[in-house]
Amino acid sequence: MDHRFLLELLGYVASVLIAVSLMMSSILRLRLINMAGALAFAVYGVLIGSYPVAVLNSFTVLVNIFFLVRIFRAKEYFQLLQLQPDSVYLPYFLKYYRKEIQRAVPDFEYHPAENQLLLFILRDCNPVGVFIAEQKPDGVLRVLLDFVVPRYRNLKIGRFLFVEQAEFFQRRGVREIVIAPRTAEFGAYLVKVGFAPAGRQEGAFNIHYAEKTP
User: Fold this and answer.
1) pLDDT digits (tens, 9 = 90+) for 107-132
2) Which sign does the torsion angle of CA 14, 46, 55, 63 carry?
3) Which of 85, 134, 136, 214 could form a disulfide with 112 if both were Cys (CB 3.0 to 4.6 A apart)?
């Protein structure tokens, strides 16, 4: 490969990264991919002797680093808000995010029932996720919907809900949570949170809790 071809390839890669970053719904992913694209453009600018391109994109890298540091250092306060089946706001929330929910769970339809556990996940007092599950008499909680608003999708919410709130589920007699993810990506996310493949149900993942001692 000649030198000119490699330079052009670097320029195309940088352009693609910048374009892809603008399509990210997650602020964290947007910043990371945009920073990678700007860094590639900065190197490209230096190699072709276009220093305005290099300087501008180096500045963009620094801006992304600044905001990434703020994201990782920001103190977020999560809270669970339990809902009743006749909640007025829940149907509105589900309707508002209907398209996003259907992408994750195409056949999901909300049908209130007495044995359901309904939760809003609040981030700094704002509802950023909803959790709907059916509780069985044997202590198994089968998840019908675990949805998080796209821009807030990261491991923090999953670990808060399923790991940090273990006592919340234990107090309600839950000994196991079972989720059947529709995508490999969501399955990988569950494993990172602390779930493991459920042997008795193909494609499902579960997490166990110790019984609550009096």
Assistant:
1) 899 998 889 999 999 998 999 999 99
2) positive
3) 85
